[in-house]
DNA sequence: ATCATATTGTGAAATTAATCCCTAAATGCC
DNA sequence: GGCATTTAGGGATTAATTTCACAATATGAT
């Protein structure tokens, strides 16, 4: 779809840069160097400069980067001008937490509907988001092409299959299950228990003395 | 304290392998090949074999891996025999979700206490975990050396400073703030909004045709 | 206008991670 | 037992990412 070549590692950092540029802008800061930004986002300044350079020469030597210019550039690059609508499947504790989270604050992304099998929840709103019955998934989804999956893990694959049949483009999977999808569909896994276990493992086996 | 040399990328996958080996074991499966495991965890079989090989020759040629043996090996490697106690700071929606999550199921990790500033919550239990007042942090922490941070982002650094002064070892930071700590303390950031934005970015800019 | 200072952009090097692919070994069938 | 098949281990290669280090250039002070 566009300027290929941006390494995936760089692409993953873009939202982070974007958020901090927003912060700087709100603070009324006019310029920022890779060094300053580095301290804020905890990414090596050389890496920041390299990341930015994939998009061209965005800064000025001896000066740094103009905050508004850079912010505007990333707003376009990250498609922040168009709203991305997302559906959330599974309004358990974790799902409910997301429904109360205002993604719009920094990202032009909004959860516009939620699904659950619990008829007590169906019909109500959680965090101003309407909750529909999971049986009505296909009927209600409309143009939504991204789903956040926060269902019990033993239901993850069945729901995924329905999302796939419906024509979903991307799934953010918070269940511990590693779901199977056709190769044309993008899935990002966030495995909370594994993250915790991994942190504990690193603590025990990779003692730190410097750097992170 | 450890067999150095295990690449960080490998270390991050260990909890994943461990969980799926557990599943296989519960299913009564006796053996598993890197190919089968690959389909379950969505990691290339060569990568799995390479990962395992850092720990020695754990499998048998022409056979695969003995599930119980491998599971036992990883249980030891991941220190699953000793319970790791964790504190959670901030019982908002996300924090509450974690308090209801049973990390013990697959990981020998347990949230043993929670802290909040809201006096309505203090003194109660959430998901069987006692909630203390944030002012009593230092007094209550005891031997706990890992914290999950789910406070509002503008409080993240102040709480972090207190955790650092207390002598914390590791922090799992769910706030969008990139906290600053001495280099001897390990912090893992999980940035939920950034993950969602990143998924959307990949969808628009990295159309998939095969592989994930 | 000059010059000391700051800071980018990037080629090159280093590091880290993933994958290819072949050998050797174990299995299971006949 | 003999043999076709399966599958791990790991050397070598390739790919991806990070970091170094420096020339080029803009700034700001005087």
Describe the structure.
Two copies of one chain form a homodimer. Chain A has helices at residues 8-26, 34-41, 45-53, 67-77, 93-100, 137-141, 153-166, 192-205; strands at 31-32, 65-66, 84-89, 109-116, 125-126, 129-133, 146-149, 170-173, 186-189. Chain A is of the alpha/beta class and 212 residues long. The two termini of chain A are 35 Å apart. In chain A, helix 1 (8-26) crosses helix 4 (67-77) and helix 2 (34-41) crosses helix 3. The mean pLDDT of chain A is 93. Chain A has eight helices and nine strands. Helices cover 42% and strands 17% of the residues of chain A. A seven-stranded mixed β-sheet of chain A has the order 5-6-4-3-7-8-9. In chain A, strands 1-2 form a two-stranded antiparallel sheet. At the A-B interface, helix 1, helix 2, helix 5, strand 9 and helix 8 of A face helix 1, helix 2, helix 5, strand 9 and helix 8 of B. Chain A binds a DNA duplex (30 and 30 nucleotides) through residues 7-10, 33-35, 44-47, 49-50, 52-53, 57-65.
């Amino acid at each position: 779809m566009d300027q290929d070549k941006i390494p995936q590692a760089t692409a993953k950092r873009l939202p982070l840069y974007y958020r901090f540029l927003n912060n700087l802008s709100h603070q009324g800061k006019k310029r920022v160097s890779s060094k300053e930004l580095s301290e804020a986002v905890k990414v090596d300044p050389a890496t920041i400069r390299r990341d930015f350079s994939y998009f061209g020469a965005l800064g000025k030597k001896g000066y740094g980067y103009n905050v508004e210019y850079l912010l505007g550039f990333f707003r376009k690059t990250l498609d922040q001008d168009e709203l991305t609508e997302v559906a959330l499947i599974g309004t358990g504790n974790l799902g409910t937490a997301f429904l109360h989270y205002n993604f719009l604050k920094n990202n032009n992304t909004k959860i516009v509907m939620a699904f659950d099998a619990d008829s007590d929840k169906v019909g109500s709103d959680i965090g101003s988001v309407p909750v529909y019955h999971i049986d009505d998934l296909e009927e209600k989804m409309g143009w939504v092409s991204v789903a956040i999956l926060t269902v019990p893990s033993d239901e993850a694959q069945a729901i995924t299959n329905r999302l796939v049949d419906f024509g979903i483009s991307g799934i953010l999977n918070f269940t511990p299950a590693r779901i199977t999808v056709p190769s044309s569909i993008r899935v990002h896994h966030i495995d909370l228990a594994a993250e915790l276990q991994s942190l504990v493992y690193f603590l025990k086996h990779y003692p730190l003395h410097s750097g992170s």
